[in-house]
Amino acid sequence: MTPLIRTAVRVEGIVQGVGFRPFVYALATRLSLGGLVGNDVDGVFAEVEGPPEAVREFLAALERDPPPLARVDRIAVSPMAPIGVPSFEIVASEPGGRRRALIAADTATCADCLRELADPADSRFRYPFTNCTNCGPRFTIVREVPYDRPLTTMAGFPMCGREYSDPANRRFHAQPVCCPACGPALTLLDALREPSPGLSPLDAAAALLRQGQIVAVKGIGGYHLAADATSEPAAAALRSRKHREDKPFAVMAAGLAGARQLALIDDASAALLTSPARPIVLLPRRPGAPVAGSAAPGNRQLGVMLPYTPLHHLLITAVGRPLILTSGNVSDEPIAYRDEVALARLAGIADAFLTHDRAIHIRTDDSVARSFAGRPVLL
Prior knowledge:
This protein is an alpha/beta fold. Helices cover 23% and strands 21% of the residues. Helix 5 crosses helix 9 (310-319).
């Protein structure tokens, strides 16, 4: 009979908030290894026990096949005495100590979640806060590490337990998991901070945008100001109210096909536009593009982006036109991300506020990965 070995494993890098614990659990279970995995202030810790060959394969796969959003910087191993426990489990995180673990950036909605968003038969149909292990908010909801639900701004919402606890589910151990029954909800407020009656908040906001009004939208990392990109009066009003003289606005298209109607896009630009970071990409403006002159006055290029959250996907689909999407601030002021600050500072700019009850938490220290309310710009 092959003797068993037990190995302690330490993994550092971007390994929290990216499905690393579920990945380790699935890997160890497939290899019939016993042990445990958890988070702490440094990253991920694990112990694996089994035949030497299986343990070696486990260690190789950690580096070779990590989750899509993970970045493994270092793996350290040390021998332990076997204890003869054949089961594998995800254990409680170990808090305490100086925080060094990196947190993943917020990531654009994945294809699986988009399919749910568009499926009338799915429980998350048109739910603007849909996410899973491979997408959604990370950096802008975490308050502290280890990265666990109680240490995020999702702490006040009940956990979708069935999916979270099912190892076969793609939301297994996904800390931001939520649904329409238990998660955040949208609210539309008018300029006097009164709730808008009648239509759903999303559909009412879309109607305002089609009418040429300006809507402040609470995104994943802060507020944006949205306007109909095809309407010259709307674009000019936004520029005047924001006190932004000439600097171009970014324009959001519903998808790659819509972006091609606005700008000339080669394969490299298409790859950037559709990447998980969803950057603003500066592109040659297509002659006759249906974009108001005040969106990018005197400029032969456009900063084009695609939706990167379920809310943005739903909003631009409901409007049916490209949208100007610019930072929620008066020129030269910081982007507003707290609700009360946004309502106060943007009251003279926005005609309405499409907001929600999930708080945004912005860190300023250097020990975590960065993510911004404004998208990165690539030339």
